[in-house]
């Protein structure tokens, strides 16, 4: 048994658009150790959701996994036949979608939708399924009387709990949560995240939490993977990456978000500009055009993802100067001056 | 509760529409050029009969008084006497209604069964050669005059191949113990086949196009993607989730289609000499049998309005977002 | 005079552009081509048709030219039982079909657009009254209504136009109304009002141009409806016996035992013509929908 439940190696996913194609994920590598919560963070369009969906191999009609490996429990699930992949879905790899409103079928009761996976995918009998439904609802803190309700009868937070119950139905090893709290207000966000953490610890499962919000990562994750323009910019233990970021993008992200715990962390400074058009990515480091610290080599050569301290990897030509850059990045003028 | 209130207010609204249609009908038959009395009194009636009808419909009274007498008579189901048949209009119309309903429903069941399946199939084969050829073809069937289609089917299947009779509901001279015995006889089915097929070919386009476009929309919904991520079988994803949701508006359209179909029946019943409401309306108008024409028109209007109401209620019933609000 | 002549193409061109004809959709182009063909046939009917459509014809042997098959004695599509030339009837039928179709469509689109505009723009009790009227129009069975109307009035092709104008504005009216409501909710109407523009000016300058394509879309559906309705009415014998229409031809064929005689050359061509014109309207409509509501996709 390997220490990592999931190892993604050099994953490439591309979308066919018109006559050309866009490499939405262009060589992403990261690990998910057993029993941990890994935050996959980045701005919208950085490829994090594409990575999440690629792990289930249910991707858009015009998308394809064009390279790399997805080692799940030591097996490359990017290469196995569809039948074997389908056997893994939900039993081993479950998914919590961003908006539970749209991802629950409006014409069936919540119980029907739980039963559907329990019986069709889990092979439970009607009796077993009913008991499991009740215990799942108990787990996520909804009274079992509401099993017979339809999705639209729940509040946003409740629906997200239903989605969690649904994801845990078959005792998966890995749960992928795609922006699970984005649509909720801050207080409910915290409740849901607390619950997710509690259940994850109790069940010993692994969670990949996809989010654009670095404060969510800080609140709940053990490890973090920062993505930029289809590539991994920085990855490592959450505390290490967030307190001592080595990539200017991570430094910028940290300035741009309020603290979920409520503590004021000074002024918020957004990173100027937008991620590059992936149809024609810039040569060299993809963050260079927005980076206040970019030097000549940055726009010609793509930096490799290298380990700077044990277990902490970063893809930046100036990673060795990180402590100094952090000081400068903490100042608001740095990001304004660049603009 | 709010749902019940919505149904009640909709019912009230349609009752008002019905009242308006009844009033329009009254005005049409009284104010149109020609002798207003002609709307009720056949010149060949005896003087006593004429006077009895004058009294019954208040034809010697001012217009507004006639209107209230007319409404009162309607409420009692009194539609006057047919000139041609010398029998109460209401009786005649209720005797013809089953024929029309059988034709309408049998053709619509066929049309919807086919249209729903074919629409779902075409959505699934989106962008294929089959779909590219089928959609214009379906639009063409919507562009056909129903009676022309009936003529072609008659010429081919009845006059040329001789597979089906040319019109009516039963062989000449055939007699049946009851209406039920007639409707369940083999002969009746062979008479029903061509007119029902004509209407079905015309009507399948609506459910087909509706089902197809709904399916295309629903297939893009998150819950369909989720069903795939759950590893559910293709059949479960497409049928239980996508089709089940896409079906909602199609089912509702069934009731509306019954209303439209009744209007189309006017020509198709005439072609196939099908003794229904539509043919009766045409014959009554041609023969200046005004009470009968008025009665047939009213009956068709009532069914159309009733079907609009049923469509609303069906939608509320089938969609838990409304029924479990 | 000169200025007008110079300005005119500009104005026509602008109008044409604001219609946003869907020229990139092959089916819509096919539909427009069908319209154009029938329009030319209708205009030059006198030159195209070899005979007067109502004239009873004789063979060179002085026999009645009745029930001739296509090609016999030089009759392209044969003759009717009364010895009339079917091809000439088809050609002249184009005329009445288009006259009825276009005027009825114009009336329906015009009334529907005005009702929708007024209803959506002013709202309140005006809207309530107009929409209840639309509800009532939806409660009237259309074909029976036309039959009764045709029975009371003198037989004329205009009965169909009148009936459509009285009843069928309902669909266009509702759609245009909801479109106007959407347009209103985008700030610029309020902005124009704050700037002191009059209601009439706002409607004409800001709203009408945006609903013109929709009116045209419903107009092209109405052309089909009008032609189908006229055919049904003529077929049932409530049409104008003086004017040759495709529906009249079909009624003539049906009453003259053309089905039993297997005279397909008689009753198939008028049906095909109706299908072509009506489906041309559908194809144009579809092209429009792809243009107006691209998210619907194909």
From TrEMBL, chain A:
MF term (GO), any: ATP binding
Domain named ABC transporter: residues: 8-254
Coiled-coil features, chain-numbered ranges: none
Keyword Transport: yes
GO biological process, one term: transmembrane transport
A Pfam family annotated for this UniProt entry: oligo_HPY
Location relative to the cell: Cell inner membrane
InterPro entries for this protein: AAA+_ATPase (IPR003593), ABC_Ni/Peptide_Import (IPR050388), ABC_transporter-like_ATP-bd (IPR003439), ABC_transporter-like_CS (IPR017871), Oligopep_ABC_C (IPR013563), P-loop_NTPase (IPR027417)
GO cellular component, one term: plasma membrane
Membrane topology term: Peripheral membrane protein
Keywords: ATP-binding, Cell membrane, Membrane, Nucleotide-binding, Transport
Superkingdom of the source species: Bacteria
Main location: membrane
The family this protein is said to belong to: Belongs to the ABC transporter superfamily.
Protein name: ABC transporter ATP-binding protein
UniProtKB/TrEMBL annotation, chain B:
Record SUPFAM superfamilies: MetI-like
Cellular component aspect of the GO annotation: plasma membrane
Membrane protein topology class: Multi-pass membrane protein
Keywords for this protein: Cell membrane, Membrane, Transmembrane, Transmembrane helix, Transport
Transmembrane segments: 12-32, 101-124, 145-168, 188-210, 246-263, 296-318
Name of one Pfam family that matches: BPD_transp_1
Domain ABC transmembrane type-1: 97-311
Matches recorded under InterPro entries: BPD_transp_1_N, MetI-like, MetI-like_sf
Entry keyword Transport: yes
Keyword Membrane: yes
Localization of this protein: Cell membrane
GO biological process: transmembrane transport
Source superkingdom: Bacteria
Main location: membrane
Family: Belongs to the binding-protein-dependent transport system permease family.
PANTHER family: DIPEPTIDE TRANSPORT SYSTEM PERMEASE PROTEIN DPPB-RELATED
Name of protein: ABC transporter permease
Organism: Mesorhizobium zhangyense
Automatic annotation (TrEMBL), chain C:
Domain ABC transmembrane type-1: 94-285
GO cellular component: plasma membrane
Protein topology in the membrane: Multi-pass membrane protein
Gene3D superfamilies (UniProt xref): MetI-like (1.10.3720.10)
Cellular location(s): Cell membrane
UniProt-listed Pfam families: BPD_transp_1, OppC_N
SUPFAM superfamilies: MetI-like
GO biological process: peptide transport; protein transport; transmembrane transport
Residue spans crossing the bilayer: 27-49, 97-122, 142-169, 207-228, 263-285
Keywords annotated in UniProt: Cell membrane, Membrane, Peptide transport, Protein transport, Transmembrane, Transmembrane helix, Transport
InterPro entries: BP-dependent_transpt_permease, MetI-like, MetI-like_sf, OppC_N
Chief localization: membrane
Family, as annotated: Belongs to the binding-protein-dependent transport system permease family.
Descriptive protein name: ABC transporter permease
Phylogenetic placement of the source organism: Bacteria, Pseudomonadati, Pseudomonadota, Alphaproteobacteria, Hyphomicrobiales
